[in-house]
Design a protein that fits this description.
- The protein has helices spanning 3-6, 18-24, 34-37, 41-58, 62-70, 81-87, 96-117, 126-151, 183-200, 211-224, 228-240, 278-284, 298-305, 345-359, 363-378, 391-405, 412-421, and strands spanning 260-264, 316-319, 327-330, 340-344, 427-428, 431-432.
- The chain has 460 residues and is mainly α.
- A hairpin with a 7-residue loop joins β2 (316-319) and β3 (327-330).
- α15 (363-378) runs parallel beside α16 (391-405).
């Protein structure tokens, strides 16, 4: 069994030895000492652990933050030029923050491919090997999905999705020049990895990826593609499994989390905090910082405030009220450390509710799903949808709850892009959803005669 990983920080980050870390931090064009690195099944386990560790580095709030800054949930970032470039939709290829986040998923993907390409180095039970592969392909799919949503126009931007996507890396190619796949090719590769993971991951796996993690990811990917039948199906499979139940309004906490389907796990002792929620606390935290970098927009705050009995209003506080310096501080992440629910039940419930509404199917179930989220927020049924709610009313209610529930989680801008690609007239802070500045620019080191960068010029 997974003795090495039991000693590590599960699902979010694992502790690997310094020598192992040096081996697997080598760039793809470097020379890997395979004979020294892979001698036992436990060595493969260390590689896989390091992939979870890298995923924790970008899910610590950094990938979520870039998405959120592009959305209409936040006001302009304070004292951070890189994030202001993102907010103003003027990212160039020298932006250190976006370049750093862009490289993190590929670090994990490179290690996963290294593992998959070298299974024949060691004898191990077939069942163990296939679980390793399924976990790796789950993480590879998640990494590609996060990159393609930020660095390419969304699925549906062109009729056949032949517009440029990202570098889809399903094998390591050394010094060979890379090209951008089409968005269709990218989503095909992501789905193929998730299908494999769904079919081969166990239903229980500690805090590691499980079959339910893969199904939740499939629901999220299909929803982003506006494929509502598949999104509703996979979200329904997770919901009906009975393995997950709603928590309180605050999913960002330490310890057990009954609605987390896949999460990063942080640790804290009297002398050590692992920092695996550091980008959330570092940018939003307002209880010990009079001038936090990220603040809620007034429009978003007024939306929540319009329903004064909504308990989620407690996540926000107006400071310097009435003064030119007035702003809305965010209290949702006011903790030293917490685990990150990357895939969670609330998301699945709202995906299924909206998808059923789009399909005009099982409307009573869709109403029930929205009402469960609302009853948690309001403490009673005062804001529930009526049993006679139409498909359009259910859809709009699910969208409203999604925006409020998932503030800060990087969901809003991708939801708006998805709706724009579906044909809705979506304007985000005065700019159309598909203007050039709504996607990030690749690092200068990636752009060459075969790898074309994104158009520049922002959204003006």
């Amino acid at each position: 069994m997974k003795k090495i990983r039991i000693l590590s920080i599960v699902a979010a980050g694992v502790l690997i030895t310094t020598s192992c870390s040096k081996i697997f931090d080598v760039k793809p064009e470097g020379v890997l000492l395979i004979d020294d690195a892979l001698k036992t099944p436990e060595d493969f386990e260390k590689v896989l652990n390091s992939c979870y560790d890298v995923a924790a580095n970008y899910y610590n709030g950094r990938i979520q933050m870039l998405n959120e800054v592009l959305s209409d949930n936040l006001s302009a970032p304070i004292n951070n030029n890189d994030l202001n470039e993102v907010y103003l939709r003027r990212v160039n290829f020298f932006n250190g923050t976006t370049n750093s986040v862009y490289r993190e998923p590929y670090r994990s993907i490179f290690r996963i491919n290294f593992m998959l390409e070298n299974f024949d180095m060691v004898e191990m039970p077939a069942s163990r090997r296939i679980t390793f592969e399924a976990e790796g392909r789950f993480l590879r799919a998640m990494g590609h999905f996060e990159i393609i949503r930020l660095w390419a126009q969304p699925y549906g931007y062109t009729p056949n999705n032949t517009h440029l996507g990202i570098r889809i890396q399903t094998r390591n190619t050394g010094t060979q020049l890379q090209v951008r796949s089409t968005v269709k090719e990218g989503y095909d590769a992501i789905l193929a990895d998730l299908w494999f993971a769904k079919d081969n991951l166990p239903t229980t796996n500690g805090n590691y990826a499980t079959k339910y993690s893969a199904m939740a990811a499939l629901a999220k990917v299909y929803f982003q593609m506006n494929k509502f039948d598949s999104a509703a199906y996979y979200a329904g499979q997770v919901i009906s499994s009975g393995q997950f139940t709603l928590e309180g309004i605050d999913r960002f906490k330490m310890g057990p989390n009954t609605e987390a389907i896949f999460k990063t796990v942080s640790t804290q002792t009297a002398s050590f905090i692992d920092g695996r929620s550091g980008a959330f606390t570092g940018n939003y935290r307002s209880d010990n910082n009079p001038n936090p970098t990220l603040r809620a927009s007034k429009d978003f705050y007024n939306l929540v405030k319009s329903r004064p009995n909504d308990s989620r209003l407690s996540f926000y506080e107006v400071r310097d009220e009435g003064l030119p310096t007035e702003f809305v501080a965010v209290k949702k992440f006011n903790k030293d450390v917490f685990s990150i629910p990357v895939l969670h039940l609330t998301d699945m419930m709202l995906i299924r509710a909206e998808s059923l509404a789009e399909l005009s199917q099982n409307l009573p179930e869709a109403i029930s799903l929205v009402n469960q989220v609302r009853e948690r927020a309001f403490g009673d049924s005062s804001e529930n949808l009526p049993a006679t709610a139409t498909a359009l009313e259910i859809r709009d209610a699910a969208r409203l709850e999604r925006r409020i529930e998932m503030f800060g989680e990087g969901d809003r801008v991708q939801d708006l892009k998805r709706r724009g690609a579906k044909g809705e007239n979506i304007i985000i802070r005065g700019a159309p959803w598909n203007c050039p500045g709504m996607v990030l620019q690749f690092p200068a080191s990636d752009i060459n005669q075969t790898f074309i960068g994104n158009p520049e010029g922002g959204c003006n």
